[in-house]
Structures are given as C-alpha cells and as structure tokens.
Amino acid sequence: MGNVLKNIEKISIKKFQDDLISWFKAEQRDLPWRKNQDPYKVWVSEIMLQQTRVDTVIPYFNRFVEWFPTIEDLAEANDDKVLKAWEGLGYYSRVRNLHSAVKEVSEKYNGEVPNTPKEISKLKGVGPYTAGAILSIAYGIPEPAVDGNVMRVLSRILSIWEDIAKPSTRKVFENAVRELISHDEPSEFNQALMELGALICTPTSPSCLLCPVRDHCQGFHEGVESELPVKSKKNTKRSVDLVAVILKDDQGKILIHKRPENGLLANLWEFPNIEIHQPTVMDRAQISDLFRESFNLNSKLEKGIGQIEHIFSHLIWNIRVYTGSIISPFQENNEWKWVSLDEMDEYAFPVSYHKIVKLYHEYN
C-alpha cells in the first residue's frame, strides 16, 4: 500500500473529486435504480448487476420490483415465484441469497436495510462491494464499493500494478478509495467511478481523450494505460457432455424434473438429463438404460433433434437432445411434474433448457 499512498499524494484529491463528480452529474445514464435511493432497490440492482451487463439487467429489475415492490413483498413470496422472476439472469445463488437475506431483514430489522458496515455485512450474499454500494448510494456513508470497474479505473489513475484477479488485491483498492472518496457526496463518487469504468475507462481501448480525470491519471501520463490493470487469466473451463430427453405421456404432456436444493441451478426445473462419461458414442437403448438406472424412468428414446451448448463461468455444457416416450406409468411428486408446453411458463427453467425448448419447436 506504500507505493499507492505515494501515488495518491501526487494528485489533488479535492480537484479529482470535483472533476469526477461533476462529470457524473452531467453524463450519468438514466437507469431505473437511480430514480431514488431506496436501500431495497439499490440492493436488488447491485445483486443483479454482479456479472451481468446493465442493458440485460434493466428489464429484469423493472419486472422484479413490479412483482416485489417492497422488502416485505419479497420476504413473503414463495421460492418458485422468486426464481421465476429471476429466470434467465443466471447465477441463481444470487437471488436465493437475496431472498434469504430479505427474510432476515424483515424479521430482525423490521424491514429496514441495516445502515452499518457490521450489520449489513452479516446478511447472506452481501459481500464487501455490495455492502459498500448500499451504504454509500442509499445512506450517504463514505464506504468503498470496489468492483472490477473501480479496480480498472484506479489501477490506471494511480498506476497500481497489483494483479486484480487475486482476492487479496481488493484491499489495496478499498484502502485507496477510503483515501479518495468524497465525504460530502459518497454516493455520487462511488457511482461516478463505476460509470467511468463502464463508459470511458473501458477494458480495451479506453477513451482517454474524453476522460474527465485524465489530468489526474498517472497511467495515461506514463503511457501505460493499455497495460493496466494487471489481470492473470482464469483456468480453462471444464467441458461436460449431457443427454437431455423430452419425454411425453399418452396425453402429450412433458415430464420435467426439479433440480436439488443445493449446487448449480438449485431448485430450477429441467428436462430429465444425465451426464455421459463414456468416450464412445452410445446408442439410444444404452442411454435409456442410464435413465432407468438414474431415475427409475422406463423410457423409449425416439429421435435425436440436435445439440445445444451452454457456457457457464467455470464449465461448458454440451447437451444432446432426444425426444421420447414413457413406457410404464410415472407418478408426479414434488420433484417430477407432467406439464403441457403452455404450463411450462409457470416454472423457472435455466437458459440452457429454454434453448432446448426452442430446438424442440424448430424441429417440430
């Protein structure tokens, strides 16, 4: 941190704050969560924006706060409806944690989002960034909110050569923000850093000539802005081969299955599927045997209708899709349902299974 403090001393903090905040007030995007400083809506928006683009989030945010306008509405909602509201955004642990934390706020804090770092950080799914964003934006408390945008911006402005892919590096940037943040306008300051990273100080080809704080940027003056931030590459994604089957009964209804309560895509619905470990190509009879062993499903696979790919942050699903029918009766329970195509709209499915439905419609 010593070198960072020395670099902070090279700039006029007050002038930096004024230039940054003035630009933000003039140029900020018109986003729905900026309409007011309701801590609940700030919280929802920040959870949605994790690992998701702003343009993607906007319609989801609007629908979510329409369905659940208040903390109490979300706390009282059933899990299936909450997952349905989130359907398609991905990283579903975010909304499960949000739902759990909102229930705690409703019960423990009388529906008021905590306004101290100690209390808010205890809520499920609220890490240092989310806590800082809510405290600064909703409550005007000068806490750092350090995300990838902020680390990129400050690595260039302060010529910080620490690897931002390392979790330990976040503390370096949090300490830097504590030195730089405006205590008069912490909300505007933190949002301005994020906005600058999104619009001007972009990952590649930053628009330095348009930057409101270019005069303060040591990376620009040293000519190394394109080399910063330092970020080591992640490990290669793991590839998984799956087979999914659209099974119909004699009334034309389709069998769907609810995923376990824990793990990837928890509590979402899907078509029956299995992972294929054998390197050789399997025929339909062999695949049917695997479904029987895994789920006690007596099925007959009829046609292969194609393959879809779905990419997660850490793995790739390659899913071969078949149609088929049930040979012997299969009873519904909490984990298995027979539904029509229209009724499927009532259940929350991951994006990969929407791709399968699209493939099915194209085939038929």
Q: What would you note in describing this structure?
A:
The protein has helices at residues 2-9, 13-27, 39-49, 54-67, 71-76, 79-86, 93-108, 117-120, 128-139, 148-157, 170-180, 186-199, 218-222, 284-295, 351-363; strands at 238-248, 254-258, 269-270, 273-275, 299-311, 315-326, 336-339. The longest helix is centred in the first third of the chain and has 16 residues, at 93-108. A hairpin with a 3-residue loop joins strand 5 and strand 6. It has 15 helices and 7 strands. The chain starts with a helix and ends with a helix. It has a 4-stranded mixed β-sheet, with helices on both faces. The model has no long low-confidence stretch (mean pLDDT 94). By secondary structure, it is α+β, with helices and mostly antiparallel strands. It is 44% helix and 14% strand. It has 2 domains: 2-227, Endonuclease III, domain 1 (Orthogonal Bundle), CATH 1.10.340; 238-363, Nucleoside Triphosphate Pyrophosphohydrolase.
Shape verdict: elongated
- Cα-atom radius of gyration: 25 Å
Strand order of the largest sheet: 4-1-6-5
Biggest β-sheet strands, sense, barrel: 4 strands, mixed
Helix/strand structural class: alpha+beta
Quick structural gist:
With 364 residues, the protein is an alpha+beta fold. The protein has helices spanning 2-9, 13-27, 39-49, 54-67, 71-76, 79-86, 93-108, 117-120, 128-139, 148-157, 170-180, 186-199, 218-222, 284-295, 351-363; strands spanning 238-248, 254-258, 269-270, 273-275, 299-311, 315-326, 336-339.
